[in-house]
Amino acid sequence: MSRIRLRIERLFDRSGRPRAVTGEDRQVFFTLATSLLGREATEGSSFDDDVRAAITVSSGGAEATALEDLARSVRDRHVEISIEELSTFGRCARAFGVADDRWTFLGERVAR
Fold first, then answer.
1. In this structure, what DSSP letter does residue 101 have?
2. What is the pLDDT of residue 17?
3. Which has the closest alpha carbon to 89: 35, 23, 53, 15?
4. What is the DSSP string of 51-67?
5. Of the candidates 67, 80, 72, 83, which has an alpha carbon nearest to the alpha carbon of residue 33?
C-alpha cells in the first residue's frame, strides 16, 4: 500500500495537481544522455544514434518515452553504466513518472 502512495506522491504536488517536469529535471536527463555518447567501441555506432534520438524525443516534451528508450538501448547494446548513472536514471524516472519496471533492469548493466 505504501508503494502506491509513494507513486502517487511522485506524480502529484501537494495541491493535487500533476507535478510538472522542471527545467532542472530536463537538464539532468540531457546530461545523463550525453554522458553515454561514445560508450560503444565502434565509432558512429547505432547506440550513439539511439542516444541522439532519445535526446530529440525528450526535447519535444516526451521525457518519459525518451528515458524508457534510452534504458532499453543501454540494456540491448550491453553498455555498462556506473552506479551514479543508475541513480540518475532513478531520479529522472521519478521526475518523469516512469514506472519502475521500465528502467530498473539497468541494475544488471552497472560496472562492477
1. G
2. 53
3. 35
4. HHHHHHHHHTT-HHHHH
5. 67
Specify the residue for cell string 502506491: 4
Provide the CA 63 distance to its chain's centre, in angstroms: 8
Cell digits for 63? 521525457
Using one digit for the tens of pLDDT, what is the confidence trace for 25-83?
899 999 999 999 988 766 667 899 999 999 999 887 789 999 999 999 999 998 999 99
Round to whole Å and give the CA distance between 27 and 17.
23
Q: Which long-range contacts (CB under 8 A, 24 or more apart) does 44-51 make?
A: 45/77, 46/77, 47/73, 47/77, 47/79, 50/77
Three cell numbers, residue 64: 518519459
Q: Which among 24, 15, 20 is positioned nearest to 97, based on CA atoms?
A: 20
In b/e form, how buried is each residue of 94-104, taking b as 16+ CB within 10 angstroms?
Answer: bbbbbeeeebe
- pLDDT top residue among 61 and 18: 61
